[in-house]
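Dig into these lines:

——
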Amino acid sequence: MSRTVSIQARLLVTVLVFAVLVWRLGAGPFLDGVRTLDGRALAAAAGLAVMTTLCCAWRWKIVAGGLGVELSLAAAVAAYYRSLFINVTVPGGIVGDVHRGISHGRDVSDVGGALRAVAWERFAGQLVQAVLTVVVLLALPSPVRSAMPLVALAVVAGVVGAGLVARRQLRLARKAWLGVGLASALVVGGHAATFLVAARTAGVTASPSRMLPLALLVMLAMVLPSAGGWGPREGVTAWAFGAAGLGVQQGVATAVAYGVMVLVASLPGAAVLLVSSCRGIQRRGRTRPALAEGAAPA
């Protein structure tokens, strides 16, 4: 019941944000975000997604090894693509991550350990993202720059506390921690680059130094409850672009373009999901005759 309520709440948040934006701005910015997309933008998003997914899978592999639930990089990449596709198409936000954790856990006969690995891997990524966001927002002008000193102190305290807990839970060598940090930084950079491509595609001509803080703010907003990131992303982008003097309409168009680009870039995960589903059906088909034969009277 609680899971159903959570999904309904995420859908409600998305619908409410879209309703308010359409009421205030009309459907034009949403249609512009789709119309302005071209093959080059989608190809760039797909290429950047290959890099970010590989880095995410590498981070997951490192963390899983520290918890004693090893997996190969190739399996991690395939599972991560599948996870991304599920996350952007199924309401719930983390359904894909839970799915890859359970699937890996069944493969290694340790579902609990595998789920902890996924949780720590996602937490590590979000922690690095928060740190990089604070650094950029302290260094470059943004609508929230005046509040950043206090935010920075809170983030530093959180990072120190999380680091102490992580050192106790994860048995990782120093090089492994560096790998987790590097992979996470590359993921943040790849997502930010995708957002900048979406902004250029939507007609935004501001410099990268002006756009980068806005991109990182929007990426933080995407962790809020929603359906596949839709809703909070458009709302925060509209506010951030308006506050930065870039236009609320262009903000919505950029967010929509980014959402479509991310969806298209996740499509390899649909192929992985289809293949894994077919293999599961084949395994069940082979198991049933064997069970029937074993149950037959002598």
About this structure: The two ends are 46 Å apart (CA to CA). Residues 21-262 form one domain. The chain has twelve helices and no strands. The chain has one domain: 21-262.
